[in-house]
């Protein structure tokens, strides 16, 4: 917990909102992210993306390289996703979580600043749900109008992007064992709680079972 707080607050500069012996919460633009203490032997692996201004991607890459170092794949340290119209780069935090900065060219606003810092982070743009019961979870989310982007078919053995393109935020739903982009780490079923618009809470347990709670 101490290393994680030092990384996100002291090194990267995110604002600390709350801290106890068991968790701490930071401001991520308009979003909030809480890191909670878990048993060290519990398998876990998380990926999340942070939306940044559409015109500051190259500046953000320089900032990441100066602070933590960029991940690369086959000699490349960035990727362009055509279906999202977005540029992305990646780095690890102390727990080995895969953090992404994503600049959606059609959705994310531009920023007048010429340099990048965490103050320009807009909000959480992606966060993953990993389970080996993809179809059941997809059906549960469908009841709350959380569907695959562009109404694509659910892929049971691949990564599914759920949510509306126009919202600039997606839940990623995929099976365990698949490699994350720009990483040699495999997706692991991990407990997580996601709160959407102060209206809906998604709670996944260590078995990959999902419960939804209307707030």
Would you spell out the secondary-structure blueprint of this structure?
Layout: H1 2-11, E1 15-19, E2 23-28, E3 31-36, E4 47-51, H2 57-67, E5 79-81, E6 86-92, E7 98-104, E8 123-130, H3 134-142, E9 160-162, E10 170-174, E11 192-196, E12 200-204, E13 210-214
Parallel strand pairs: 4-7, 8-10
Antiparallel strand pairs: 1-2, 2-3, 4-8, 5-6, 6-7, 9-10, 11-12, 12-13
- How many helical stretches? 3
Query: What structural category arises from helix and sheet content?
Result: alpha+beta
Rounded mean pLDDT score = 95
> How many domain regions?
1
Shape: globular
What name does the CATH topology carry?
A: 2,3-Dihydroxybiphenyl 1,2-Dioxygenase, domain 1
Q: What is the class in the CATH system?
A: Alpha Beta
What is the helical fraction, as a range of percent?
10-25%
Biggest sheet features: 7 strands, mixed
Distance between the termini: 28 Å
Got a strand count? Answer: 13
Show unreliable segments. none
Radius of gyration: 17 Å
CATH level 4 superfamily: 2,3-Dihydroxybiphenyl 1,2-Dioxygenase, domain 1
């Amino acid at each position: 917990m101490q290393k994680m707080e030092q990384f996100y607050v002291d090194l990267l500069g995110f604002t600390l909102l709350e801290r106890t012996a068991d968790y701490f919460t930071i401001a991520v633009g308009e979003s909030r992210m809480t890191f909670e203490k878990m048993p060290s032997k519990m398998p876990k692996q998380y990926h999340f993306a942070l939306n940044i201004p559409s015109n500051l991607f190259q500046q953000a890459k320089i900032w990441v390289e100066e602070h933590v170092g960029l991940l690369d794949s086959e000699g490349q340290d960035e990727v362009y996703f055509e279906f999202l119209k977005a540029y992305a780069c990646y780095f690890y935090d102390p727990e080995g979580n895969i953090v992404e900065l994503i600049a959606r060219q059609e959705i994310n606003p531009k920023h007048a600043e010429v340099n990048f810092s965490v103050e320009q982070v807009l909000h959480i743009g992606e966060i993953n749900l990993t389970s080996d019961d993809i179809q059941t979870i997809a059906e549960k989310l469908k009841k709350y109008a959380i569907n695959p982007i562009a109404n694509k078919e659910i892929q049971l053995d691949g990564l599914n992007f759920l949510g509306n393109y126009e919202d600039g935020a997606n839940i990623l739903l995929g099976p365990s064992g698949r490699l994350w982009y720009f990483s040699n780490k495999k997706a692991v079923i991990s407990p997580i709680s996601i709160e959407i618009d102060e209206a809906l809470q998604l709670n996944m347990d260590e078995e990959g079972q999902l419960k939804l709670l209307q707030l």
